[in-house]
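Okay, any thoughts on this one?
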Amino acid sequence: MSLPQRFKLVFFAPIPAMPAIKQAIFAAGAGRYPGPGGYTEVGFTTQGRGQFRPGASANPNIGKVGELEELDEHRFETLCVGQDVVREAVAALKKTHPYEEPAYEVYKLEDF
């Protein structure tokens, strides 16, 4: 029996934006853990300090063009089961995230 492909979605966002983003990706199917427990909204958050400098053609939600911006952010990671789920979760992330270009990563996971 073939198990559905699993992915890990990792993204970074300003702390006040996290509740809305998490709600959106969970509604898209992220954070559902396979197994008999029926766990949903599973994830892990760490806090850190992000930085960026918007380029000349940027339209930043936070900060100013050409100026280095530093702010407290959360890193959030969650499981996505199935390629369709991870694609929908990334689309929800991009739609909800306040940044012009959200920072995110998707990792394909292996079963052992």
Notes: Residues 83-96 form the longest helix (14 residues).
